[in-house]
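Students often ask what a 'structure token' actually looks like in practice. Rather than answer in the abstract, let us consider Inorganic pyrophosphatase, a protein of 123 residues. Its sequence is given first.
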Amino acid sequence: MSDGEPFWNVLDALVAASEVVVERPAGSPHPRYPDSTYPLDYGCLRGTRSSDGADIDVFVGRPGARDVTGIVATVDAVKRDAEVKVLLGCTPAQADAVRAFLDWPGSFGGVVTLRKPAGRAGD
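Now compare that with the structural description of the same chain:
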């Protein structure tokens, strides 16, 4: 079974060729759920396309980060869709904060997949 490196390499290239736009800084309230605040900067890869027809969503752990550290696969039972969001420059703790932010029992959930550090494919 592959360690997924071809996937990560293509995602790296997509990020490198895209403008990262932060639309909601960390601490901003969610537009539809004001009691829920974004744990990290949230935005998109301008000029890309996700399964919902909008730009691909990103969570940014460090200001200006462009290194792909993982993804979050989400499912929205209300909209009846699923998509992938990209984690840029995130620590494992930050990725867990994103997952917790995206878990709305019964209606929305996410699963984080972190990229293995280089040289650890056999782990």
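One point worth highlighting: The first strand starts at residue 19 and ends at 24. Ask yourself how you might have guessed this from the sequence alone, and why that guess would often be unreliable.
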